[in-house]
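Researcher: I'd like a candidate sequence for this fold, 314 residues long. If you have to choose between options at a position, lean toward the conservative one.
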């Protein structure tokens, strides 16, 4: 703990846990009967997408694929289709690859240790720690953007954590994690929730915070951030164009001929123009740029070039 006396830690842990008991959102992946697979799916979906958008997709996903084996039995393209507009669809491919590995090597059961989880394709340090903690009650240091922000303010007096995770932050996170397993799981969940609901990035609601009187950032006079976080531009980016192409592929039940992506809509038969295709054309991309995007999607495994055109992967 950089600036906060160690003697304050037990009361901070207790007060944040109490706040969590009163204010935590009821989310299905937090319910006692949620399977480890449900927790794993939620963690991957939540990485770059807000809860409100994840909820309906998560529910549909678990209804359709209640186990890793159920997902592994279908083509990866179906996972990409069901991912819909959650964004960063490579996560769907990673989830499919993880489901296949779990089915083949772990008898269809999500493994419970951080090391085993990290050995699954596409599962990094954060996801492995979060699934071990929230699905299996393991004491693991979970460090997501919300936890990083709360701990930077509460313990280090900084307005924001550094742009990327540092070794010092991990040391801090390790040092404030309760030693006992149940307490550690509660700490991870409650600090994450405090960051999501109260200690938010742009305007923390410090008057609602249970540890305001012990917060190092408040004690330091609420200093300004030392850098401006980069926003995530969308309009005009490759991400927007990739999203538009993926929407065309998801909506199509057969491969989309390559030239259809490049033919002006007035030259296409109205019946062959899906709404996503109209949207893609409305973005007015240069053909060379669009071609590069299509090639990149193939390289990334999100699309497949067949003799009849472009399609989701088989
Ligand atoms: Fe965050 Fe404000 Fe609470 Fe400090 S007092 S932890 S800045 S919400």
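Model: Candidate sequence:
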């Amino acid at each position: 703990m950089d600036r906060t006396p160690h003697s304050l830690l037990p009361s901070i842990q207790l007060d944040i846990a109490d706040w969590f008991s009163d204010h935590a959102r009821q989310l299905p992946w937090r319910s006692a009967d949620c399977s480890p697979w449900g927790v794993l799916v939620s963690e991957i979906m939540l990485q770059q997408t807000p809860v409100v958008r994840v909820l309906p997709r998560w529910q549909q996903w678990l209804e359709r694929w209640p186990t890793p084996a159920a997902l592994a039995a279908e083509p990866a393209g179906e996972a990409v289709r069901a991912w819909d507009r959650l964004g960063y669809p490579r996560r769907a491919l990673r989830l499919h690859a993880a489901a296949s590995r779990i089915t083949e090597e772990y008898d269809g059961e999500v493994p419970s240790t951080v090391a085993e989880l990290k050995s699954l394709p596409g599962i990094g340090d954060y996801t492995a720690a979060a699934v071990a903690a929230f699905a299996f009650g393991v004491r693991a240091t979970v460090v997501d953007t919300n936890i990083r922000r709360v701990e930077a303010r509460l313990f280090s007096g900084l307005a924001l954590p550094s742009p990327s995770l540092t070794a010092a932050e991990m040391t801090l996170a390790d040092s404030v994690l309760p030693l006992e397993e149940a307490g550690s799981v509660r700490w991870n969940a409650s600090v994450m929730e405090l960051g999501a609901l109260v200690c938010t990035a742009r305007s923390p609601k410090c008057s609602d915070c249970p540890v305001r009187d012990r917060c190092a950032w408040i004690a330091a006079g609420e200093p300004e951030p030392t850098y401006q976080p980069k926003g995530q531009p969308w309009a005009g980016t490759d991400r927007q164009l990739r999203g538009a192409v993926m929407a065309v592929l998801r909506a199509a039940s057969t491969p989309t001929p390559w030239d259809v992506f490049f033919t002006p809509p007035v030259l296409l038969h109205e019946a062959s123009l899906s709404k996503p295709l109209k949207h893609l054309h409305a973005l007015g991309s240069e053909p060379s740029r669009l071609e590069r995007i299509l090639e990149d999607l193939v390289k990334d495994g999100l699309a497949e070039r067949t003799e009849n055109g472009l399609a989701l992967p088989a």
